[in-house]
Protein backbone atom coordinates (compact mmCIF):
# COMPACT_ATOMS: atom_id res chain seq x y z
CA UNK A 1 0.00 0.00 0.00
CA UNK A 2 2.87 2.33 0.73
CA UNK A 3 4.04 1.91 -2.88
CA UNK A 4 0.64 2.98 -4.43
CA UNK A 5 0.06 6.06 -2.32
CA UNK A 6 2.74 8.29 -3.90
CA UNK A 7 1.42 7.37 -7.41
CA UNK A 8 -2.16 8.25 -6.46
CA UNK A 9 -0.97 11.45 -4.87
CA UNK A 10 0.74 12.52 -8.09
CA UNK A 11 -2.37 11.81 -10.15
CA UNK A 12 -4.49 13.80 -7.73
CA UNK A 13 -2.12 16.72 -7.91
CA UNK A 14 -2.21 16.64 -11.73
CA UNK A 15 -5.99 16.58 -11.70
CA UNK A 16 -6.08 19.59 -9.39
CA UNK A 17 -3.65 21.40 -11.64
CA UNK A 18 -5.74 20.68 -14.76
CA UNK A 19 -8.92 21.86 -13.04
CA UNK A 20 -7.26 25.06 -11.85
CA UNK A 21 -5.88 25.65 -15.36
CA UNK A 22 -9.29 25.16 -16.87
CA UNK A 23 -10.85 27.60 -14.40
CA UNK A 24 -8.18 30.17 -15.09
CA UNK A 25 -8.62 29.79 -18.88
CA UNK A 26 -12.40 30.17 -18.54
CA UNK A 27 -12.01 33.35 -16.48
CA UNK A 28 -9.44 34.72 -18.91
CA UNK A 29 -11.69 33.91 -21.93
CA UNK A 30 -14.68 35.62 -20.35
CA UNK A 31 -13.00 38.80 -19.10
CA UNK A 32 -10.11 39.26 -21.59
CA UNK A 33 -9.35 38.81 -25.31
CA UNK A 34 -6.01 37.10 -24.75
CA UNK A 35 -7.26 33.70 -25.90
CA UNK A 36 -9.03 34.83 -29.14
CA UNK A 37 -6.10 34.05 -31.49
CA UNK A 38 -5.67 30.67 -29.85
CA UNK A 39 -9.41 29.87 -30.23
CA UNK A 40 -9.39 30.85 -33.92
CA UNK A 41 -6.41 28.63 -34.58
CA UNK A 42 -8.04 25.72 -32.72
CA UNK A 43 -11.34 26.10 -34.65
CA UNK A 44 -9.48 26.11 -37.98
CA UNK A 45 -7.57 23.02 -36.96
CA UNK A 46 -10.66 21.11 -35.86
CA UNK A 47 -12.99 22.12 -38.76
CA UNK A 48 -12.05 19.09 -40.96
CA UNK A 49 -12.70 16.83 -38.00
CA UNK A 50 -16.18 18.34 -37.53
CA UNK A 51 -16.93 17.89 -41.24
CA UNK A 52 -15.86 14.25 -41.11
CA UNK A 53 -17.91 13.70 -37.98
CA UNK A 54 -21.01 15.09 -39.77
CA UNK A 55 -20.66 12.78 -42.77
CA UNK A 56 -22.78 9.95 -41.31
CA UNK A 57 -25.75 12.30 -40.85
CA UNK A 58 -25.36 13.66 -44.41
CA UNK A 59 -25.25 10.17 -45.89
CA UNK A 60 -28.27 9.18 -43.81
CA UNK A 61 -30.39 12.05 -45.20
CA UNK A 62 -29.25 11.33 -48.78
CA UNK A 63 -30.06 7.66 -48.41
CA UNK A 64 -33.50 8.46 -47.05
CA UNK A 65 -34.30 10.64 -50.04
CA UNK A 66 -33.03 7.99 -52.48
CA UNK A 67 -34.94 5.21 -50.81
CA UNK A 68 -38.24 7.11 -51.08
CA UNK A 69 -41.08 4.64 -51.72
CA UNK A 70 -41.98 4.15 -55.38
CA UNK A 71 -45.66 4.58 -54.57
CA UNK A 72 -45.10 8.18 -53.55
CA UNK A 73 -43.55 8.96 -56.96
CA UNK A 74 -46.44 7.27 -58.73
CA UNK A 75 -48.96 9.26 -56.68
CA UNK A 76 -47.19 12.51 -57.47
CA UNK A 77 -47.05 11.63 -61.18
CA UNK A 78 -50.73 10.75 -61.19
CA UNK A 79 -51.59 14.03 -59.52
CA UNK A 80 -49.59 15.98 -62.10
CA UNK A 81 -51.29 14.11 -64.94
CA UNK A 82 -54.71 14.91 -63.49
CA UNK A 83 -53.84 18.59 -63.18
CA UNK A 84 -52.61 18.62 -66.78
CA UNK A 85 -55.86 17.04 -67.93
CA UNK A 86 -57.87 19.67 -66.07
CA UNK A 87 -55.89 22.52 -67.63
CA UNK A 88 -56.19 21.02 -71.10
CA UNK A 89 -59.92 20.64 -70.58
CA UNK A 90 -60.22 24.28 -69.58
CA UNK A 91 -58.17 25.26 -72.62
CA UNK A 92 -60.51 23.33 -74.90
CA UNK A 93 -63.49 25.05 -73.30
CA UNK A 94 -61.88 28.42 -73.89
CA UNK A 95 -61.22 27.62 -77.56
CA UNK A 96 -64.79 26.42 -78.03
CA UNK A 97 -66.20 29.58 -76.43
CA UNK A 98 -64.07 31.74 -78.71
CA UNK A 99 -65.22 29.78 -81.78
CA UNK A 100 -68.85 30.02 -80.66
CA UNK A 101 -68.59 33.79 -80.20
CA UNK A 102 -67.10 34.05 -83.69
CA UNK A 103 -69.99 32.03 -85.17
CA UNK A 104 -72.56 34.20 -83.41
CA UNK A 105 -70.92 37.39 -84.67
CA UNK A 106 -70.93 36.02 -88.22
CA UNK A 107 -74.53 34.98 -87.84
CA UNK A 108 -75.68 38.42 -86.75
CA UNK A 109 -73.96 39.92 -89.81
CA UNK A 110 -75.55 37.45 -92.24
CA UNK A 111 -78.72 39.38 -93.10
CA UNK A 112 -78.58 41.82 -95.98
CA UNK A 113 -82.27 42.76 -95.77
CA UNK A 114 -82.30 45.27 -92.94
CA UNK A 115 -86.10 45.53 -92.96
CA UNK A 116 -86.34 41.95 -91.74
CA UNK A 117 -86.47 41.10 -88.04
CA UNK A 118 -84.29 38.22 -86.96
CA UNK A 119 -84.48 35.59 -84.23
CA UNK A 120 -81.49 33.45 -83.27
CA UNK A 121 -82.23 29.75 -82.88
CA UNK A 122 -80.20 26.64 -82.10
CA UNK A 123 -80.31 23.27 -83.87
CA UNK A 124 -81.35 20.66 -81.31
CA UNK A 125 -82.11 17.72 -83.60
CA UNK A 126 -81.86 16.33 -87.13
CA UNK A 127 -83.84 13.82 -89.15
CA UNK A 128 -82.89 10.19 -88.63
CA UNK A 129 -83.79 9.50 -92.28
CA UNK A 130 -80.80 10.33 -94.53
CA UNK A 131 -83.14 11.00 -97.46
CA UNK A 132 -85.12 13.69 -95.62
CA UNK A 133 -83.17 16.80 -94.73
CA UNK A 134 -84.98 18.32 -91.75
CA UNK A 135 -83.68 20.13 -88.68
CA UNK A 136 -85.31 20.74 -85.32
CA UNK A 137 -84.70 24.15 -83.73
CA UNK A 138 -85.43 25.40 -80.21
CA UNK A 139 -87.93 28.09 -81.26
CA UNK A 140 -91.66 27.65 -81.64
CA UNK A 141 -95.05 29.35 -81.53
CA UNK A 142 -94.18 30.89 -78.16
CA UNK A 143 -91.52 32.88 -80.03
CA UNK A 144 -93.81 33.86 -82.91
CA UNK A 145 -92.52 31.23 -85.35
CA UNK A 146 -94.93 30.32 -88.18
CA UNK A 147 -95.07 27.69 -90.92
CA UNK A 148 -93.31 28.80 -94.09
CA UNK A 149 -90.88 31.10 -92.30
CA UNK A 150 -87.45 31.34 -93.98
CA UNK A 151 -84.34 30.19 -92.10
CA UNK A 152 -80.73 31.17 -92.84
CA UNK A 153 -77.30 30.65 -91.33
CA UNK A 154 -74.21 32.86 -91.43
CA UNK A 155 -73.56 32.06 -95.11
CA UNK A 156 -76.92 31.68 -96.82
CA UNK A 157 -80.36 30.13 -97.04
CA UNK A 158 -81.02 26.97 -95.00
CA UNK A 159 -84.69 26.32 -95.74
CA UNK A 160 -88.15 27.01 -94.34
CA UNK A 161 -90.22 26.06 -91.31
CA UNK A 162 -92.69 23.24 -92.07
CA UNK A 163 -93.99 22.38 -88.58
CA UNK A 164 -94.35 24.44 -85.41
CA UNK A 165 -94.81 23.43 -81.77
CA UNK A 166 -94.86 25.64 -78.71
CA UNK A 167 -91.13 25.58 -78.05
CA UNK A 168 -89.66 23.89 -81.12
CA UNK A 169 -90.02 23.87 -84.90
CA UNK A 170 -89.03 21.67 -87.84
CA UNK A 171 -87.11 23.17 -90.75
CA UNK A 172 -87.05 21.61 -94.23
CA UNK A 173 -83.64 22.20 -95.83
CA UNK A 174 -83.33 23.40 -99.42
CA UNK A 175 -81.30 20.26 -100.21
CA UNK A 176 -84.22 17.94 -99.43
CA UNK A 177 -85.34 16.10 -102.58
CA UNK A 178 -88.89 17.47 -102.19
CA UNK A 179 -87.83 21.13 -101.95
CA UNK A 180 -87.64 23.72 -104.73
CA UNK A 181 -87.30 27.50 -104.72
CA UNK A 182 -87.06 30.31 -107.28
CA UNK A 183 -83.58 31.78 -107.71
CA UNK A 184 -81.70 34.13 -109.98
CA UNK A 185 -78.10 34.56 -111.10
CA UNK A 186 -76.52 37.45 -109.28
CA UNK A 187 -74.38 38.35 -112.29
CA UNK A 188 -77.12 38.85 -114.87
CA UNK A 189 -80.50 38.26 -113.20
CA UNK A 190 -81.36 35.05 -115.10
CA UNK A 191 -84.11 33.19 -113.22
CA UNK A 192 -84.41 29.48 -112.55
CA UNK A 193 -85.64 26.91 -110.04
CA UNK A 194 -83.19 25.32 -107.59
CA UNK A 195 -84.20 21.82 -106.52
CA UNK A 196 -82.90 19.66 -103.71
CA UNK A 197 -81.15 16.42 -104.60
CA UNK A 198 -81.06 14.64 -101.23
CA UNK A 199 -77.36 15.49 -101.03
CA UNK A 200 -76.55 18.17 -98.44
CA UNK A 201 -73.75 19.47 -100.69
CA UNK A 202 -75.62 19.66 -103.98
CA UNK A 203 -78.57 21.41 -105.64
CA UNK A 204 -79.60 21.38 -109.30
CA UNK A 205 -81.16 23.97 -111.58
CA UNK A 206 -84.20 23.24 -113.71
CA UNK A 207 -85.41 24.61 -116.99
CA UNK A 208 -82.31 26.45 -118.16
CA UNK A 209 -81.99 26.34 -121.93
CA UNK A 210 -78.72 25.42 -123.59
CA UNK A 211 -78.29 29.03 -124.70
CA UNK A 212 -78.54 30.48 -121.18
CA UNK A 213 -75.73 32.81 -120.11
CA UNK A 214 -74.40 30.85 -117.12
CA UNK A 215 -70.85 29.90 -116.17
CA UNK A 216 -69.15 27.95 -113.41
CA UNK A 217 -68.67 30.25 -110.45
CA UNK A 218 -71.91 32.17 -110.88
CA UNK A 219 -73.62 33.01 -107.59
CA UNK A 220 -77.30 32.25 -107.02
CA UNK A 221 -79.58 34.26 -104.72
CA UNK A 222 -83.27 34.10 -103.86
CA UNK A 223 -85.37 35.88 -106.48
CA UNK A 224 -88.28 36.84 -104.21
CA UNK A 225 -90.85 35.29 -106.55
CA UNK A 226 -93.65 33.45 -104.76
CA UNK A 227 -93.16 35.68 -101.71
CA UNK A 228 -91.90 32.71 -99.69
CA UNK A 229 -88.25 33.75 -99.48
CA UNK A 230 -87.16 37.40 -99.44
CA UNK A 231 -85.06 38.42 -102.43
CA UNK A 232 -81.29 38.63 -102.25
CA UNK A 233 -80.28 35.86 -99.86
CA UNK A 234 -77.36 33.64 -101.02
CA UNK A 235 -78.42 30.19 -102.20
CA UNK A 236 -75.33 28.67 -103.76
CA UNK A 237 -72.51 28.63 -106.29
CA UNK A 238 -72.54 26.99 -109.73
CA UNK A 239 -69.93 24.22 -109.77
CA UNK A 240 -70.82 22.16 -112.84
CA UNK A 241 -72.56 22.73 -116.21
CA UNK A 242 -73.27 19.97 -118.73
CA UNK A 243 -74.72 20.46 -122.21
CA UNK A 244 -76.06 17.03 -123.16
CA UNK A 245 -76.90 16.26 -126.77
CA UNK A 246 -80.56 15.78 -127.40
CA UNK A 247 -81.53 17.69 -124.25
CA UNK A 248 -83.37 21.01 -124.34
CA UNK A 249 -82.08 22.07 -120.92
CA UNK A 250 -78.72 22.26 -119.17
CA UNK A 251 -77.62 20.02 -116.34
CA UNK A 252 -76.40 22.48 -113.70
CA UNK A 253 -75.10 21.55 -110.26
CA UNK A 254 -74.92 24.07 -107.43
CA UNK A 255 -73.07 23.93 -104.11
CA UNK A 256 -75.23 25.43 -101.33
CA UNK A 257 -73.92 28.62 -99.74
CA UNK A 258 -75.18 27.59 -96.30
CA UNK A 259 -73.59 24.87 -94.20
CA UNK A 260 -76.67 22.65 -94.26
CA UNK A 261 -75.17 19.78 -92.29
CA UNK A 262 -72.82 21.78 -90.05
CA UNK A 263 -74.49 24.97 -88.82
CA UNK A 264 -75.39 24.97 -85.12
CA UNK A 265 -76.98 28.42 -84.89
CA UNK A 266 -79.62 29.63 -87.34
CA UNK A 267 -81.63 32.79 -87.96
CA UNK A 268 -85.39 32.96 -88.43
CA UNK A 269 -86.56 35.77 -90.73
CA UNK A 270 -89.71 37.68 -89.82
CA UNK A 271 -91.73 39.67 -92.34
CA UNK A 272 -94.09 42.56 -91.64
CA UNK A 273 -96.94 40.23 -90.66
CA UNK A 274 -95.08 38.57 -87.80
CA UNK A 275 -92.65 41.37 -87.07
CA UNK A 276 -93.71 41.42 -83.42
CA UNK A 277 -90.95 38.93 -82.57
CA UNK A 278 -87.83 41.06 -82.40
CA UNK A 279 -84.23 39.97 -82.37
CA UNK A 280 -83.42 38.18 -79.10
Automatic annotation (TrEMBL):
Descriptive protein name: Cell shape-determining protein MreC
A Pfam match is: MreC
Q: What's its job?
A: Involved in formation and maintenance of cell shape.
The family classification in the record reads: Belongs to the MreC family.
Domain Rod shape-determining protein MreC beta-barrel core: start-end pairs: 123-269
In the record, biological process GO terms are: regulation of cell shape
Q: Give the matching InterPro entries.
A: Cell/Rod_1, Cell/Rod_MreC_2, MreC, MreC_beta-barrel_core
Q: Which Gene3D superfamilies match?
A: Rod shape-determining protein MreC, domain 1, Rod shape-determining protein MreC, domain 2
Q: Which UniProt keywords apply?
A: Cell shape
- One CC-aspect GO term: plasma membrane
* Positions of transmembrane segments: none
NCBIfam families under this entry?
mreC
Cell membrane is among the record's keywords: no
Amino acid sequence: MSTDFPSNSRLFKRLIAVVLLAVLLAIADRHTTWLQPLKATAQSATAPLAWVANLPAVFARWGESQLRPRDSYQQELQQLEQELLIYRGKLQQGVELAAENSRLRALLNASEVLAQSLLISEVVGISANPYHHTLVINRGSDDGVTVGQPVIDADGLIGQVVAVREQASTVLAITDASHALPVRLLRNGVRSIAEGTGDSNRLRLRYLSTTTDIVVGDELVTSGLGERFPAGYPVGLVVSIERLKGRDFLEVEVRPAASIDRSHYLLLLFNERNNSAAVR
